Amino acid sequence: MGFLIRTAFWFSLVLLVLPLGTGPNGENSVSPLQAIFAAREAVGDLAGICERKPDVCETGKAAMQTIGVRARESARIAYQALDEQFGQPDTATQTGSVPEAAPEAGPEAGPKADIVPIEAAAVPTPRPAAPAN
Question: How much helix, strand and coil, in percent to the nearest 5, is found in the chain?
């Protein structure tokens, strides 16, 4: 419902911008600048409605809470339905996971079994200079 209201609002603004000439019987149509100012004033008027009529804002707040509760409940039901349909893991398909490597040194080697001695470590070497043309 909200989508339809927003769509109608933006569509009416587009329609106000499109006719740049005169209307029927030679009267002037609304200019795009006037349409923008009118829309701005309408939004300002809607923002002040809570001061004029607090019961309207209370009803709107209650409606939004009800919509939120219903949306949350619908999402929960959809999640449960999807979980029932696709919840079981697929053991036949394997992804690109890497199997664990067997420890070479064994548990008695301790935490330093993964350390590479400095003599075996790769040392970066500088690139040779490019030949001058």
Answer: 60, 0, 35
